[in-house]
């Protein structure tokens, strides 16, 4: 199985995927930043609350330290801890029993009251921090905390952040009304206190991020796909070049001023040039083929025409001077004459380059065409729709025009199915005669269309196949144009013959 590389994927996949990844990465970065900021804010809020609590407790402890009332001091520091425990749903601790203090384990919150010698006066965990024990004698971090307190002689609270890796010590001086220092209050809080609130923040951030992603991811995928659809459509059209002829390539390309729009415009221009080149090559091939066939047939026609004229002259002389003739001979001579006349007509059709002199085309000439075609129409059971709006003579040679229209009508009759319809539409404006012959016969495919006006190419058994070729040659003589359109329902020949000064 071949390896699928990302760069080989279609831009219809890569672009929406890139937009999706950018959205996901942005959401992750923003969520991480928000959570880090929330954690920092919660930590600072915890420190501020602890300092506020310490300030209140420090003022409340002043009478107890002044009277040296240890139990009053102990009740003072335990009151906020018990209240916080009740607010958190914990079982309320009991601090006094039979006149003795019962140790309460608050591993996350510790409150110590120190006297002026940094001896423990009272603590929230009296078993762990016995009274009258020097703080530095507890060793480790407490010794460092004692050093920090000794170095900080001011009357302002401070926070010792770096002593414990997972705890914060808030130190608040206990001052009498005259400013004398009575002791020090230490609130030691664990980082674990931040976890419940932080987890609540995490849930809110994750929920908000998921809601945003649910809205942005489909929108980003849709928008990325929409941006690349014109490029994918252009690529599909380009792949058809070379495998299909340019005339069959029809693409609804993106029209814009951006890069894709400019490439689409260049590709559309290239297709137009390829179509023009294809049409020019087709015209050149058809012209060369017709010219070669015309030269061949003209040469043959000239060679046949001379002995043919002599034979017709001999029959005419015999009919004038033959005296008494046998009836059988008369019928035979007449049969020969009609055959030779038919051969002469066929040969004459091959010599259309010799322009015949004739009068201007009149409405009567056109009605003659209708009369001549009527027997063929009736014989095949067709209906003729005759739409002639020409009511005065037009400056065109009647012989050539009549031959063109008659050949096209005969071709339409031959191509129509029995019971069908043939339509002849005739109009004349100030510059040209325009005609359209339509029949409901079989669809003309592209291969037949390319050889439609070649002699002997489409004989259908009712003639020699020269009608359309002769028609084409006559139209070229008159500097006119002929166009053919064919689909499953109808085939239409449109002829335009311009008026020239010579015709006028």
| Residue share in helix | 40-55%
Spans where pLDDT lies below 50 across 5 or more residues: 90-105
The beta-strand count equals 14
Output the CATH topology of the domain at 6-198. Answer: Beta-Lactamase
| CATH class category label of the domain at 6-198 | Alpha Beta
Shape: rod-shaped
For this structure, what is the CATH homologous superfamily of the domain at 6-198?
PAS domain
Gyration radius, rounded: 55 Å
Largest sheet strand order? 4-3-7-6-5
Note the total helix count: 10
What is the element string, with H for helices and E for strands? HHEEEEHEEEHHHEHEEHEEHHEE
Mean pLDDT reading: 79
- The proportion of residues in beta strands is 15-25%
What's the architecture of the domain at 6-198 in CATH terms? 2-Layer Sandwich
Helix-strand category: alpha+beta
Euclidean distance between termini CA atoms:
77 Å
Summarize the main sheet: 5 strands, antiparallel
């Amino acid at each position: 199985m071949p390896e699928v590389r990302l760069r080989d994927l279609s831009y219809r996949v890569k672009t929406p995927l890139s937009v999706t990844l950018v959205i996901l990465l942005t959401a992750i970065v923003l969520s991480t930043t928000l959570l880090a900021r929330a954690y920092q804010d919660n930590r600072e809020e915890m420190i501020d609350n602890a300092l506020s609590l310490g300030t209140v407790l420090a003022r409340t402890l002043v009478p107890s330290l002044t009277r040296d009332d240890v139990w009053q001091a102990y009740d003072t520091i335990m009151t906020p801890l018990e209240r916080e425990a009740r607010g958190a749903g914990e079982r309320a601790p009991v601090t006094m029993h039979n006149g003795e203090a019962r140790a309460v384990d608050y591993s996350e919150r510790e409150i110590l009251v120190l006297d002026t010698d940094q001896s423990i006066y009272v603590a929230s965990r009296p078993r762990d921090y016995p009274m009258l024990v020097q703080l530095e004698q507890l060793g480790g971090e407490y010794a460092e905390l004692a050093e920090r307190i000794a170095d900080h002689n001011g009357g302002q609270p401070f926070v010792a952040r770096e002593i414990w890796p997972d705890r914060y010590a808030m130190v608040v001086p206990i001052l009498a009304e005259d400013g004398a220092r009575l002791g020090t209050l230490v609130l030691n809080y664990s980082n674990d206190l931040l976890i419940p609130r932080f987890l609540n923040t995490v849930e809110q951030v994750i929920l908000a991020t998921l809601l945003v992603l649910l809205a942005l991811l489909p929108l980003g995928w849709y928008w990325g796909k929409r941006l690349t659809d014109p490029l994918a459509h252009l690529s599909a059209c380009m792949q058809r070049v070379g495998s299909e002829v340019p005339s069959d390539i029809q693409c609804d390309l993106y029209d814009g001023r951006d890069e894709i729009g400019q490439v689409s415009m260049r590709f559309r221009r290239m297709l137009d040039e390829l179509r023009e080149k294809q049409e020019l090559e087709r015209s050149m091939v058809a012209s060369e083929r017709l010219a070669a066939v015309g030269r061949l047939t003209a040469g043959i026609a000239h060679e046949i025409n001379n002995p043919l004229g002599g034979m017709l002259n001999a029959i005419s002389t015999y009919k004038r001077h033959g005296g008494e003739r046998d009836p059988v001979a008369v019928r035979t001579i007449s049969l020969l004459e009609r055959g030779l006349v038919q051969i002469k007509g066929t040969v004459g059709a091959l010599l259309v380059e010799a322009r015949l002199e004739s009068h201007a085309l009149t409405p009567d000439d056109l009605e003659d065409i209708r009369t001549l075609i009527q027997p063929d129409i009736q014989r095949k059971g067709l209906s003729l729709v005759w739409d002639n709006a020409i009511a005065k003579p037009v400056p065109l040679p009647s012989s050539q025009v009549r031959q063109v229209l008659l050949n096209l009508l005969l071709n339409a009759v031959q191509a129509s199915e029995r019971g069908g319809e043939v339509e002849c539409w005739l109009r004349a404006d100030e510059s040209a005669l325009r005609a359209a012959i339509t029949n409901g016969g079989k669809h003309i495919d592209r291969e037949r269309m390319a050889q439609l006006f070649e002699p002997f190419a489409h004989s259908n058994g009712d003639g020699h196949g020269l009608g359309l070729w002769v028609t084409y040659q006559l139209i070229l003589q008159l500097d006119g144009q002929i166009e053919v359109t064919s689909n499953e329902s109808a085939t239409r020949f449109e002829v335009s013959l311009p008026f020239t000064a010579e015709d006028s």
